[in-house]
Amino acid sequence: xxxTIPIEEDYDFSVSRIVAPIQQTxxxxxxxxxxxxxxxxxxxxxxxxxxxxxxIEEQNREINGVRCExxxxxxxxxxxxxxxxxxxxxxxxxxxxxxxxxxxxxxxxSDWAAQQNCYKLILEANGLPVNSITITAILxxxxxxxxxxxxxxxxxxxxxxxxxxxxxxxYQYLTSRIKALQRATTLSAEDIVTGK
Length: 196
What we know:
Layout: E1 3-4, E2 13-14, H1 15-19, H2 22-30, H3 44-60, E3 67-76, E4 79-89, E5 92-99, H4 101-106, H5 110-125, E6 132-139, E7 157-162, H6 167-184, H7 189-194
Parallel strand pairs: 2-4, 5-6
Antiparallel strand pairs: 1-3, 3-4, 4-5, 6-7
């Protein structure tokens, strides 16, 4: 199984990039100048997410034993993978997500589950056991006037338990995504976009 990398150093892929759409990951790496923002409204939700993370991190740093925004490493088949989790305490990974109500109404958290279970793999490889994973979703477009609807979130902050995967499943997911990313690096931009 994986080997941990003891000190902070360069890495090949972050968990965030591994779980993102492959086309997005490869094209952003290949054309970094193309991700420049043309309009401030394009980054509003990202800004709000960073602000929420910073406030939460600041509050949690005062609690003894809590680890926040820490980057850990793992080597998987010769590839260095990094993961920067939001909060780890007493066997629990807690991730803070800024999102819209639609995500909660839809109830599809598979992308979040993949990301968090990759973090679990990295944490455990670094000697930190994980027995639960929770997402705290902060809904910026939540409206109290709509909360009467049973399909609408009851509050602006929603706690979502994430199912823990077996170690083998997480490892297989991670290795398959890494292999797919490695294959995609050899494709032309046109082939990546069209999925050839």
